[in-house]
Amino acid sequence: MKIGKYSIPEIRKFIVAGAGLAGLLLTSFLEEFVGVIPESWSGPVTWLIGAVTAVGVFLTKNAPVIDAAADRLG
Predict the structure, then answer these.
(1) How far is the C-alpha of 20 from the C-alpha of 18, rounded, in Å?
(2) Given pLDDT bands bounded at 50, 70 and 90, which one contains residue 1?
(3) Once rounded to an integer, what is the mean pLDDT over residues 7-24?
(4) Where are the domains of the chain?
(5) Could you tell me if 53 and 19 are in contact, meaning their C-beta atoms sit under 8 angstroms apart?
(6) Is 49 exposed, middle or buried (0-12, 13-18, 19+ CB in 10 A)?
(7) Are 26 and 32 in contact (CB under 8 A)?
């Protein structure tokens, strides 16, 4: 099954990447405009979120039930 030209697994990986991007932007916003995060923490927190996002996208598994349904409807 596809939504537009993208399959369900591709959409699922996009959602994980989007969540990571939102985390990075939130970290940047909090440090830059609000001052909630100390400046010395900004870099390491950003690196950690970026690394976790990359690993999360890589490890996002194709759920068997969803992929089987996508293949049947395909």
Answers:
(1) 5
(2) low
(3) 85
(4) 2-73
(5) yes
(6) buried
(7) no
Rounded Cα–Cα distance for residues 57 and 36 (Å): 28
**Rounded CA separation 36/33 (Å):** 9
Structure confidence by residue, pLDDT tens digits, 20-63: 889 888 887 877 776 777 778 878 888 888 888 888 877 776 66
Amino acid identity of residue 23, one-letter, is G
Q: H-type helices in the chain, by residue range?
A: 8-29, 39-59, 64-73
pTM: 0.63
Structure tokens at 27: 């970290």
Token digits for 25?
Answer: 């932007």
